[in-house]
Amino acid sequence: xxxxxxxxxxxxxxxxxxxxxxxxxxxxxxxxxxxxxxxxxxxxxxxxxxxxxxxxxxxxxxxxxxxxxxxxxxxxxxxxxxxxxxxxxxxxxxxxxxxxxxxxxxxxxxxxxxxxxxxxxxxxxxxxxxxxxxxxxxxxxxxxxxxxxxxxxxxxxxxxxxxxxxxxxxxxxxxxxxxxxxxxxxxxxxxxxxxxxxxxxxxxxxxxxxxxxxxxxxxxxxxxxxxxxxxxxxxxxxxxxxxxxxxxxxxxxxxxxxxxxxxxxxxxxxxxxxxxxxxxxxxxxxxxxxxxxxxxxxxxxxxxxxxxxxxxxxxxxxxxxxxxxxxxxxxxxxxxxxxxxxxxxxxxxxxxxxxxxxxxxxxxxxxxxxxxxxxxxxxxxxxxxxxxxxxxxxxxxxxxxxxxxxxxxxxxxxxxxxxxxxxxxxxxxxxxxxxxxxxxxxxxxxxxxxxxxxxxxxxxxxxxxxxxxxxxxxxxxxxxxxxxxxxxxxxxxxxxxxxxxxxxxxxxxxxxxxxxxxxxxxxxxxxxxxxxxxxxxxxxxxxxxxxxxxxxxxxxxxxxxxxxxxxxxxxxxxxxxxxxxxxxxxxxxxxxxxxxxxxxxxxxxxxxxxxxxxxxxxxxxxxxxxxxxxxxxxxxxxxxxxxxxxxxxxxxxxxxxxxxxxxxxxxxxxxxxxxxxxxxxxxxxxxxxxxxxxxxxxxxxxxxxxxxxxxxxxxxxxxxxxxxxxxxxxxxxxxxxxxxxxxxxxxxxxxxxxxxxxxxxxxxxxxxxxxxxxxxxxxxxxxxxxxxxxxxxxxxxxxxxxxxxxxxxxxxxxxxxxxxxxxxxxxxxxxxxxxxxxxxxxxxxxxxxxxxxxxxxxxxxxxxxxxxxxxxxxxxxxxxxxxxxxxxxxxxxxxxxxxxxxxxxxx
Length: 907
Fold this sequence. Notes:
9 strands
């Protein structure tokens, strides 16, 4: 029972908050427990190391496990412990480089590798595989793996091959050493074909080098000359293509493949693989026009392979790459009649491949009418196709609709056929919904058609459920009513895309929203926020949730959203805008509470910042509206005093709008992980604020500034595109003020001009109530973890160091680990160090002292920086992080903040 309790305690422990000492104590206790307790602890170590991927922690844990690996090999039933250690190294692959004392584990591996049990020896090889990035250059480890390749048992051979794959990716020295062994094995009659294929598949992973690539290419040619088994021959062709793609010999290799195609015209399997290899190198820029013509001349040969449609599929896949460049278009257009005919091919993959090329050629005078005539037949076959083929073809349809040569009627024609060919039970139902959403985003005029389709589907679902005899409405919803979320993305189309035939928003809430379960209502509410239906849709759905049954953080979040939904004004009057501002402020206070008190506060920082900025916009426009309403009678008078008062008010508002712009810039700096559409929305909000700031400046007593310059915003979101269009309209309207901007302030400050500006700004405001996706969640995740170490004795209070008062300069080392899935990547990390005399939390006045940067190599995600602080009194030292991304070279702010306390003597 004690052991079971201990395992439960491990499972309940939070790796993010557990200290290193506490975890090491757990590991030490587990060493004396039953084997399954130790396995559970090692399993918990995986998550713990993700939270603490620092050298000191890795060294302590893996050095302890090295002793376990050495001691447990004599007990057969504890092999599961050894395997769990192996798994831990694999799970720690991202940061195993920080294991700096790997020689401890390596000595144990070399000792255990002489065990008589082949499974134990295989586990040693697996452990080397997991530690490859830190032991790859050790000669003993290299020779142990090479010996494993020649081992008598299959389990050792397999483990050795897996280890080779990891080692060759890190060590060029090992590549040169093991290549000779590969040559011996590949031409050995004692090795099975399956193992030879495994070995050949590792060769592309060898580190690049001219001499090594030439040797591998020559090895591939020797394999082909030996007339080995068919699977080995196919693997050899794949190898040659991979090596050729790395260099400038693509043209020669393309000729070699096309020569071979003619030789193997009666071998469908090899022929298919040869065309697949041509497709792999078709993206290269080293092709010549004569080679393109030669490839096109192979089309009759592809047609003859009626039993192998994959041949023509890969032929089309190779051809697709060439349609991205105009220099090959004339040659490819020579077979456009064949391509159109392939739209009726019985194999759907071939049909899709042809459609992709024909749509790519659409920019080069291929008839859109011809495509429209053939697409309906393909759409009818959509539900019988594989899911991947459905998605690819629907992406082609979306691209076709978005092409500049496609008319509105053509888009409507495609949408109608998609709708008519799809039912609730169709296999292509989900894919068609995604496509309709994509097409509607590009052409909002299609929304009414899509709304009717979504309404029909939902009505049918409800009708089927209500026809059942055992309807359960006791919980307040139909328990079996689970519509697809994409249906509501269509139903909740923004107001500018709806027409008189569109289902009223209140009916959507009553007929569908209140019949789904509570989690689904929340999802619908999020969609409503994003499409601008805060009050009419999001509010009633959120108010219907039972907050008492929710976890406290989520309940608080729902209250924040409820207040936010109430902030959407019903009309643009001073009274309604004042109520809106009050509700927005309430939402802001709750969001601040979530950020400051909640354990997961960092997830709400973007939402809080966005609410603050939006609240500023409402405050500014409400204040401006109130001012011009109150002063309407005197704006046209000649009273200098009254006009000076208006100018003074506008100057105050201008200060507030400048502060809002600064807040927005700070939000930009923290938006590295947001999606492109959310970032585009921030850019549009910036332009809106720029126009507000410019408008106030127009009424200054001094000469007004010029209207801010526009900047390009690329977007695929219908709401962003609509707001961008309105901002362009607003700029054109504001340009009319240029005629009088150089006049005196007495002429500029008039009722006509004031209300002219008001009408423009409120048109923009009414079309700005769309929340970005990142308000609710980020698409990417970037975490930068810091480990702060100082000289002196660390007290029981984690992060507090007791040091002698003799030395005023105290060295501090900052270790860091970067983890991101953002494709932009991180090029450099900047650490900002500041110091403050210790005081009550939140009242310290930090003084910036240091700023140091370090560049991250392509294959590294960790760093270490040294600082020295002049400390005379017990002080708190704070480290904050910013970073530069690889793609745009912009500087971004991280949410990472770490503090330590330097306590002088016994104070």
